[in-house]
Design brief:
Blueprint lengths: L6 H12 L11 H11 L16 H10 L5 H9 L11 E6 L2 E7 L3 E5 L2 E4 L5 E5 L3
Antiparallel strand pairs: 1-2, 1-5, 2-3, 3-4
Helix pairs in contact: 1-2
């Protein structure tokens, strides 16, 4: 993943800004949160082709199915390549939250956006990670 020189600061500011933004399918959901974190760190928009194309959980599942991903891990692998298993600041992660796979970003711990808002998760919840350092 391409990153700007000040990506750690940009990522911290991004996470702070997300604390007060409500979850909204197709605007501010877990996968777009991870994609937006990549953008905040200076990378390209890996979700450009799906932004604005769904507004519900069902719509998100349809988009995933249409692009050939049956899970968040499959979607992230499709967009980011094979996971490397490194948990370092700025890594994109897939975690288990309430029995579901959720995309997020690692910053001292995994952070994910759920329907309950921005949440820090335990390390044990991480399923896969993509650092590509």
């Amino acid at each position: 993943m391409k990153r700007s020189n000040d990506w750690p600061t940009q990522l911290a500011e991004f996470l702070l800004s997300k604390r007060s933004e409500p979850f909204q399918w197709g605007e501010n959901d877990c996968c777009l949160f991870a994609a937006d974190a990549i953008i905040a760190m200076g990378g390209e928009d890996v979700a450009e082709d799906v932004r604005g194309r769904y507004k519900t959980a069902l719509g998100a599942r349809r988009i995933m199915k249409n692009i050939g991903a049956n899970s968040v891990v499959e979607l992230l692998t499709q967009r980011l390549g094979e996971p490397d298993g490194k948990l370092m600041r700025g890594a994109i992660v897939a975690v288990e939250s309430d029995g579901q796979q959720v995309a997020g970003v690692f910053y001292h711990k995994p952070w994910v956006l759920t329907e309950k808002g921005l949440q820090g998760m335990p390390l044990e919840s991480v399923i896969k990670s993509w650092s590509h350092s």
